Amino acid sequence: MFKKLWSLCRIGISTELWPLSKSLLNLSRGDELTIGKAVEGILILGATGSGKSSGSGCAIAHSYLKAGFGGLVLVAKADERRLWEKYCNATGRAKDLIIFGPKNSSRFNFIDFELNRKGDGAGITENLVNLFSTVLEIAEKNGGSDRGEDSGYWRRANRQLVRNLLDLAIFATGKLSIPELYRLAISAPTSLQEVNSDAWKQRSFCFQCLTEADNRPKDIRQNRDFELVADYFFLEFPSLSERTRSVILSTFTSMIDVLNRGILSELFCTDATITPEAIAEGKIILIDLPVKEYADVGLIANIIWKYCFQRHIERRDVSKNSRPVFLWQDEGQLFTTSNDMQFQTTCRASRVATVILSQNISNFYAVLGEGQKGKAQADSLFGNLNLKIFHANGDSVTNEWAAALIGRCRQFVVNSSSNHQNSNWALALADMAPSQGSAGVSEIFEFEVQPAVFTQLRTGGVANNGQVDAVIFSNGARFKSTGRTYLNATFRQK
Predict the structure, then answer these.
(1) Angle, to 10 degrees, between the axis of helix 205-215 and the axis of helix 220-231?
(2) N or C, where is the chain less crowded by C-beta within 10 Å?
(3) What rounded mean pLDDT belongs to the chain?
(4) Which of 122-131, 227-236, 254-263 has the lowest mean pLDDT?
């Protein structure tokens, strides 16, 4: 065996298990979905009942599992777990499937994971601040929170509080926990008079940590950072107006409260048994807290895993472990955050195959906010998902977007006309009257695929003999079977 591998290396043939050219799925005669194409990202759009999950979604999921991908599956609907158990059983990957949820034993302490992970950037406070900010972003969107023109200030002020709480906990105890962060926040001084109060000093957990942190040995950088923390809690925070301070504090405590109790506390605030590292080793982690069942609790759990996975997988050394991994998001609009746009621009180098399924693009515009900023964020995300699969859809916005994406081409239109000049209608009808006619060909640029085409695609089921039609668009490449950037494909439901 070793002699064979050495011979392959000498003649220049790659011995990599997952080369980017490796075929995963036949899309047509002559056209394949390769690992290289998969890690450029896939967007699947189709109306409810269009067959997007049972058609292209099922085929792609099976191809990833058969190829040995690791993966993270975010869960919106209650039947997602049964579906992926079926997928893994069919592809011989049942042993690699790890269910993360309240009915299973797996636990993930995300704070401890970020604080104590390997690598040069381990323990950086700002990484944890970004995680809390992402959770807060989701909570605000779900709750319809909008502070108008001042929203930028409140967001920065909340990040500042989180940053100082995290630093103080690390300086004082060398560890982080959700309950201690909560205790620090609610025991912080609320006025300059309280700062000088012996009664506050005796009962305040915040003051105890400030004292402990001050007494602990620190290097030059840590000493400088601690001075900023001390100034914040002794001067800046208590000097804020009561209304401003209460809004900042309640924003943080309301966010962290859900992590501090119940299911999320049990899943994320105890000893870890699983981390995103397992995905790079070939495990498939499914977050079994469906958003449709658990609402905000399920959404926060999915987002924590998604963010930690994204940050971890981008740090891995692909030269040492080139196994592709996937991030699967059915009802993807529910899990979309502002961090996704940045992640998708670079995740190809980390061999991450992002798959997002949804009904239409309007879902994303609605989630990311009104106005040009939300639309720009959504368009940025779509632009970095290079393979797009369109199933039957009645949403005109999506259909026109898909048609525009495929583009226009030069087309020739034949036109003709005739004019009878006799006032005798009897003769005219008998085609006996003299007439004038003209004919011509005009050149126009029109959609190669008309928007109406997407309303006529087959949706599977008994009526269609299990056949699901799709139009596949590939950015920057032509399909061999068509010579164009789009392809008509049919998937068979299993």
Answers:
(1) 150
(2) N
(3) 87
(4) 122-131
